[in-house]
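Long-time lurker, first post.

We've been arguing in lab meeting about whether NAP would sit comfortably in this protein at all. Half the group thinks yes, half thinks no, and nobody has a model to point at. So I'm putting the question to the forum: if I give you the sequence and the SMILES, can you give me back a predicted structure of the complex? Inputs are below. Any interpretation is welcome too.
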Amino acid sequence: MHVILMVAITVDGKIARSADHYPDWTGKADKRFYVEVTKKAGVMIMGSTTFDIIGRVLPGRKTVVMTRNPARCSDSADLVFTADPPEAILADLSDQGYTQAVVVGGAKINQLFAQKGLLDELILTVSPYAFGSGLSIFSDSVDLKLTLKRFWTLDDNTLCLRYGVVH
Ligand SMILES: NC(=O)c1ccc[n+]([C@@H]2O[C@H](COP(=O)([O-])OP(=O)(O)OC[C@H]3O[C@@H](n4cnc5c(N)ncnc54)[C@H](OP(=O)(O)O)[C@@H]3O)[C@@H](O)[C@H]2O)c1
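Top reply:
Settle the argument with this. Predicted structure of the protein with NAP, as tokens:
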């Protein structure tokens, strides 16, 4: 299973001003690219805070929502709430035939996958904002060594960086 972490960041490395900040600050090109990468993988994994902020199921791919709240459930195969640890989520997805999964935030869920060494690739889109304070990509310390694979622009204002994780 190839695990990609995909995040939109400001030029000062923030993913949001606060935990309840709606992600409406990234541009159309970033959103299009997010759809392309997540649909190609077929599955994205997010925390319940991020899911609640988005407020709907994004079509055309499976969404796995990490929550410890047992009251949260879904009738759809495309929306799964789980309290399983990251390794078990990835093993289940692999059993279902997925070969790629995209971790899409927020900071707490990014942290869980990073601290367990489960990320293979990082895709960062840098939007032309600075927040000064706010949530970083990871909610706590991590130790990732990366190699820059590619960089390009998505539009006049948005830079995309693709890194491999050195295991
Ligand atoms: N810029 C970007 O690319 C981007 C992407 C995504 C999100 N965001 C932003 O990030 C912010 C949210 O990030 P966040 O770090 O506060 O929250 P988050 O990572 O989205 O979700 C955290 C929640 O996940 C659940 N959880 C945590 N650890 C778990 C575990 N081990 N097992 C199962 N469930 C677990 C808990 O919720 P329960 O109470 O349900 O258990 C926890 O409160 C928002 O502002 C959002 O807009 C930005």
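For your lab meeting: The radius of gyration is 15 Å. The domain at 2-160 is CATH 3.40.430.10 (Dihydrofolate Reductase, subunit A). Whichever side wins, do check it experimentally.
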